[in-house]
UniProtKB/TrEMBL annotation:
PROSITE patterns: 4FE4S_FER_1 (PS00198), 4FE4S_FER_2 (PS51379). Its EC number is 1.17.99.6. It comes from Oceanimonas doudoroffii. Monomer. Belongs to the QueG family. This is Epoxyqueuosine reductase. SUPFAM superfamilies: 4Fe-4S ferredoxins. One of its GO terms (molecular function) is 4 iron, 4 sulfur cluster binding. One of its GO terms (cellular component) is cytoplasm. The lineage of its organism: Bacteria, Pseudomonadati, Pseudomonadota, Gammaproteobacteria, Aeromonadales. It is found in: Cytoplasm. Cob(II)alamin binds at residues 61, 138, 156, 162, 173, 220, 245-246. Catalyzes the conversion of epoxyqueuosine (oQ) to queuosine (Q), which is a hypermodified base found in the wobble positions of tRNA(Asp), tRNA(Asn), tRNA(His) and tRNA(Tyr).
Length: 375
């Protein structure tokens, strides 16, 4: 192929990407050397927590050409996921409900994007017979966010996510590595300015400095990646967040411009959209696997699912029904989950005791003829 052919192909690739349901596509080279020192520093500080795979692959994450020898360009794509009726405030403000990060309400995005990227590769192969391509969706040691930024899909926000002027940060990323010398796109200007809303809103202060997240403090890490006990210091701060956390995105001014996704696969599953904690806690492992089939939630397993919900029940308002549910489940789980149930029971006991003391004070006030609001 001649150089003008590659320019035409790059143009068509973006058209094909749109036809396949991607909301944007950009093209960049493979040079991420400027990010290697930042990655090394992040790993050295242990900010990756128990995600050993982050350290195991070392600097390969910043070297896509090592992942697929012969790679010359990376086609970076994004796909919006915010559902039409997200019900975010409705769920987060109701401590009896369980909040699931909005990206996880529908079908597993890994499968959706990967299948579309394969189809994109097939389209390109029709024009480039010697194409060597490989798709990735959060499934390989590659720095997808810097690649997306270099491809012009957005800029890096202070919460470390990619921000786009038209869609904020509510989108998935995917990459297609190719051996074609396609013309590259240019990065866009940074748009955060002096805003630090994401740093201040984080419940656990996981954004330790602009652009740097200590995963060990992040609720998404604690509820999804962490396999063992959740540190007690973070449990009260998690509220009713049982799978992931969107706070740093929700506060971001750019997300006011986010459009709802038109992708049917990302439509919320009814039983996960605004679920009651007690209902979710009652799910057996078999029912959990059935209800989360094809969902990204399934990867955490029933054990971590119960652990997360136990914490949320500990943070829920005082309720004999919650105490009963926790006690009923206590002898059906392993030691790790039991520890969280015991923590939740202690929290509930304290709240019920305070509730009883308040009731007793009100009764005494009434008996003495005092206003019921007296303390």
């Amino acid at each position: 192929m001649t150089t003008p052919d590659f320019a035409a192909l790059a143009h068509d690739i973006k058209l094909w990407a749109a036809e396949l349901g991607f909301d944007q596509a950009g093209i960049t080279g493979t040079d991420l050397s400027e990010h290697e020192s930042q990655l090394a520093d992040w790993l050295a500080k242990g900010y990756h927590g128990e995600m050993d795979y982050m350290a195991r692959h070392g600097m390969m994450r910043a070297r896509p050409h090592e992942l697929l020898p012969g790679t010359l360009r990376v086609i970076s794509v994004r796909m919006n996921y915010m559902p039409e009726h997200a019900a975010i405030a409705h769920v987060l403000s109701d401590p009896d409900k369980g909040y699931i990060s909005r990206y996880a309400l529908g079908r597993d995005y890994h499968k959706v994007l990967r299948n579309r990227l394969k189809k994109l590769a097939d389209k390109i192969a029709e024009r480039a017979e010697k194409l060597v391509a490989r798709p990735f969706v959060d499934s390989a040691p590659v720095l997808e966010r810097p690649l997306a930024v270099n491809a012009g899909l957005g800029w890096t926000g202070k919460h470390s996510l990619v921000l786009n002027k038209e869609q904020g940060s509510f989108f998935f990323l995917g990459e297609l590595l190719v051996n074609l010398p396609l013309p590259v796109d240019q990065p866009v200007a940074e748009g955060c300015g002096n805003c630090v809303a994401c740093l201040t809103i984080c419940p656990t202060q996981a954004i330790v400095e602009p652009y740097v997240v200590d995963a060990r403090r992040c609720i998404s890490y604690l509820t999804i990646e962490l396999d063992g006990p959740i540190p007690e210091e973070f449990r009260p701060l998690m509220g009713n967040r049982i799978y992931g956390c969107d706070d740093c995105q929700l506060i971001c001014p750019w997300n006011r411009f986010a459009n709802a996704s038109q992708e049917p696969d990302f439509a919320p599953r009814e039983r996960l959209h605004a679920p009651q904690l007690l209902e979710l806690f009652d799910w057996s492992e078999t029912h959990f696997l059935s209800m989360t089939e094809g969902s990204p939630i399934r990867r955490i397993g029933h054990r971590r699912w119960l652990r997360n919900i136990a914490v949320a029940l500990g943070n829920a308002p005082a309720s004999p029904m919650v105490v009963f549910a926790l006690e009923q489940k206590r002898d059906q789980v392993d030691d790790m989950v039991r520890e969280h149930i015991d923590w939740a029971l202690a929290r509930q006991a304290d709240k019920l005791a305070r509730q009883d003391r308040k009731t007793a004070r009100l009764i005494r006030a009434v008996d003495k003829g005092m206003p019921t609001h007296a303390r």
